[in-house]
């Protein structure tokens, strides 16, 4: 963090956290979101709100896409295990709280067999802590993270389904998007027909990527990379399981022609460091609501940039996490894109609308304090879920 930023924030004192609240929302997915491993029939969201002793607030979002029934579970975990750690004491910096949560949750992760959900609530709380931290200092989160100035961050329309994908891609192009990512892994004939349809519709110079969502074996991924190379793709994302060893990724890079992307399903800094060090991995994609929040993901971003890799935040949830991802990329700089789900999602749009102003496929964040947005709970009320807190 820059010295000037540190000094300015220190002047506002430690954050005395008084409360943590959780909110669950669920909106219909029309059409359903299709991936190679499952279909999302609705769009869940878990929001967390921190309040300090002065009444200031910070907001975060917890990853909860799959299974969608897990949204309520994560909200309960946040209240049962996250709140006792972070409330009732003062924190000098969000990173201090994040590291404390990881230490306190370590045995619990082993005991419950639920490292994922516990990492996710720690990430969401950390996100809210950064929003609060920056608001108290009167500066945008991207500056609190060490960024020097806002700049036009490239974004891409993601999650394009395998059913008539060119129609959605053209609609998003009309909204101002200039890069597009198609879901693949639905069989050779369907994947190739969809790629051909999108390329024909969008033109030969339009940026296109594909995401297989861990659909293939290494041999299948190599064959797919060769088949799809004719379409001039920017990257091939998660062609194999995320837990494949480094030598698998090296082989993929050597034996097929497409740039490789991944990282949304890693859950430790050593795992990211190994991924970044792997010559075959070119695009690094941590998800701030799934692991690390802003504290962990800004470290991954800086390591990726230093290694000459692209840092491209993964996000496929509601609006708070999307805005947080834009702040991370603004702070980190470097080449790459921020992911924006192309599918309809009122929970995303209602929250992120104040900052999602596209110009030539880019978003430039404002100087508003924190994330620059506050969820409108009244507007979100029709989608609220009354979950048990016991």
Automatic annotation (TrEMBL):
Highest taxon in the source lineage: Bacteria
Coiled coil residues, start to end: none
Keyword Cytoplasm tagged: no
Keyword terms, alphabetized: Isomerase, Magnesium, Metal-binding
GO molecular function: isomerase activity
Enzyme class: isomerase
InterPro entries xrefs: Enolase-like_C_sf, Enolase-like_N, Enolase_C-like, Mandelate_racemase_C, Mandelate_racemase_N_dom, RHMD-like
Pfam families the UniProt entry points to: MR_MLE_C (PF13378), MR_MLE_N (PF02746)
EC number: 5.5.1.27
Domain Mandelate racemase/muconate lactonizing enzyme C-terminal, residue spans: 165-259
Identification of the protein by name: D-galactarolactone cycloisomerase
Organism the protein comes from: Cupriavidus respiraculi
Taxonomic lineage: Bacteria, Pseudomonadati, Pseudomonadota, Betaproteobacteria, Burkholderiales
Originating gene: gci
